[in-house]
Design goal:
Strand content: 25-35%
Shape: globular
CATH superfamily of the largest domain: ATP-grasp fold, B domain
CATH topology of the largest domain: D-amino Acid Aminotransferase, Chain A, domain 1
Helix content: 25-40%
Radius of gyration: 21 Å
Number of helices: 14
CATH architecture of the largest domain: 2-Layer Sandwich
Bound molecules: adenosine monophosphate
Structural class: alpha+beta
Number of strands: 18
CATH class of the largest domain: Alpha Beta
Number of domains: 3
């Protein structure tokens, strides 16, 4: 162990309390991964019922409230977040006085689809054609250049398919623009993709990097339905890692970062990035040697990263709107059940299951036990 590593580890050992902005399921899984490392997590969330509250203390308040953010910062040694929509302005000077990771610059870019696409372009990462749109004349001009079909998306606060419309003809232009509120938007080329994949990379404060095997993701209505890891097409691993490495280095990043891609004719086209742990990485809890949650904490604390290898073949199935009975899932060999403790509501992610098997064939066969998904 060199002197530098020792210094990093001593610094990390002084971190006992981690503040997490947002107490959703991602925060809850981070807090659970923090226990064996001797960490206590404190959340900031406007809801006392948020999933994180079942495992750690929640400071009640909005992410946009600078005073609450300052109160959280005062209670902890280091800050991180489980949501992307923490307003950067509300953080003010906090990141100057308290370690805040992943870096605010990455958080800011991830909040704006236009800046994100601009960054991909600057780093020579392929994306769909895109144009900024802030008025109907802009949209009319942009559609001339991009063509039909195209996807109109709000630049900010769009997730899980919200804040976007597919436009197939000129008759739909006005209604799509108005439905999205006539605010700042981006028009993208519609990609006829063969499949969607994501890469999850992690970089620690020393600059060490590691990448999980890339994941195949199947969405329905814009929401992730299920993921399979590792992705069958192993040739995509290297380019995905190269792209993720560029983004991690660009931000002098620490923590977990995800990039989602479309795959068309065997090539990756970047759709978006998330500067945090990601739904498509939940399989790593049981399906990888070190989970994305543990690795995120190791990375932001400045600790050595854990092995990102898969322990076989894994699938993650989201439970959306309702939870199946626990016994019906656990009777499937290799299955694990995660209930986030949320109130059921249509379209809401309430939990997930992970299946871990020795072969891909066995995995696909056992996935048939989940009646409302249809693996290829
Ligand atoms: P997003 O909110 O950008 O992650 O989009 C949610 C989902 O909508 C994606 O995972 C795709 O399934 C679909 N989608 C988004 N943008 C496009 C696009 N430009 N072309 C085709 N499908 C898209």
């Amino acid at each position: 162990m060199n002197a530098n590593t020792t210094k990093q580890i001593i610094a990390a050992l002084n971190v006992k309390r981690v503040g997490i902005v947002g107490a959703g399921q991602l925060g809850r899984m981070l807090a659970l991964a923090g226990y064996p490392l001797g960490l206590q997590c404190v959340f900031l969330d406007k809801s006392a019922d948020a999933p994180g509250g079942q495992v750690s203390k929640i400071l009640i308040g909005a992410f946009s409230d600078p005073e609450k953010l300052a109160q959280l910062a005062a209670q902890v040694d280091l800050l991180t977040y489980d949501v992307e929509n923490v307003p950067v302005e509300a953080l003010g000077d906090i990141p100057k006085h308290k370690t805040f990771l992943p870096p605010v610059t990455a958080l800011a870019i991830g909040q704006d689809r236009l800046s994100e696409k601009g960054l991909f372009r600057a780093l020579k990462i392929p994306t769909a054609k895109f144009r900024a749109v802030s008025s109907m004349p802009d949209l009319e001009q942009a559609i001339q250049e991009i063509g039909y079909p195209a996807v109109l998306k709000t630049r900010r606060l769009g997730y899980d398919g919200r804040g976007q419309r597919v436009i197939c003809s000129s008759a739909e232009l006005g209604s799509a623009f108005n439905a999205l509120g006539g605010i700042a938007m981006i028009l993208e080329e519609f990609i006829e993709f063969e499949c969607e994949v994501s890469v999850i990379g992690v970089r620690n404060r020393r600059g060490d990097m590691a990448f999980y095997p890339i994941v195949e993701n199947v969405h329905r209505d814009g929401i992730l339905r299920y993921s399979i890891a590792p992705c069958a097409d192993r040739k995509l691993q290297k380019p995905a890692e190269n792209y993720a490495r560029r983004v991690l280095r660009h931000f002098d990043y620490a923590g977990v970062l995800t990039i989602e891609f479309f795959v068309k004719k065997g090539r990756l086209i970047a759709n978006e990035t998330a500067p945090r742990v990601h739904n498509s990485g939940h399989w790593t809890i049981e399906g990888a040697v070190t989970s994305q949650f543990e690795n995120h904490l190791r990375a932001i604390l400045g600790l050595p990263l854990g092995d990102t290898s898969a322990r076989g073949y894994a699938a993650m199935v989201n439970f959306i709107g309702s939870m199946p009975p626990v016994a019906s899932v656990l009777e499937i060999p290799g299955a694990h059940y995660h209930d986030y403790g949320k109130q059921p509501r249509p379209g809401r992610k309430l939990g997930h299951a992970t299946l871990v098997c020795a072969t891909r064939r066995e995995l696909l066969s056992r996935l048939k036990n989940f009646p409302d998904i249809a693996p290829r």
